[in-house]
Amino acid sequence: xxxxVSGEAFAHAxxxxxxxxxxxxxxVNLIAFLYLGAKHMVTGYDHILFLLGVIFFLYKMKDIGVxxxxxxxxxxxxxxxxxxxxxxxxxYIIDAIIGLSIVxxxxxxxxxxxxxFRFQPNTKAATLIFGFxxxxxxxxxxxxxxxxxxxxxxxxxxxxxxxxxGQLLALGAILIVMGFWRRTPSFLKHAYSTNAVMMGAGFMxxxxxxxxxxx
Length: 215
Description:
215 residues, mainly alpha, globular
């Protein structure tokens, strides 16, 4: 399935239809930007894979809420700041870093750091920091829309709300599937291999983006 996902979808490219629509409208369009924000997150396989890695071994809703909130704070801050102040990072580089975040979390879930270094990185800090990079990824894509400065702030806030709605929808689907899976003996049996596949997907994204950067 992962190999069938195009690089554009994997890296959150702006759909031509959406881009054309946004370039044509001006003023405050909250519903449109709310929809685009939700669509951006729900179809963003890189964000969803990282989110899956973050909650993979979290069983308590309180813990899930803390980590998801840290991720949301991180990507909201850099997304809003990046677009409002019109600065960003090269999209190939930032998407490669997002791929690295997937690799990092998969290795964490596999217990690699404790085996290799006898050290467990701060998982909350890592979630927040990578959230910042995911936000820069979002801001670089929003800047691709070349949206009008008329109504920029409310539209941007609506987009951010849409992103959070999309994140909650994706999280809800993940939790439902994980809830059923965790009740079966296959969960612990295949947890390691599942994270290995996630890690491979992260490396695929890194490779794709770096290839695009250097070509």
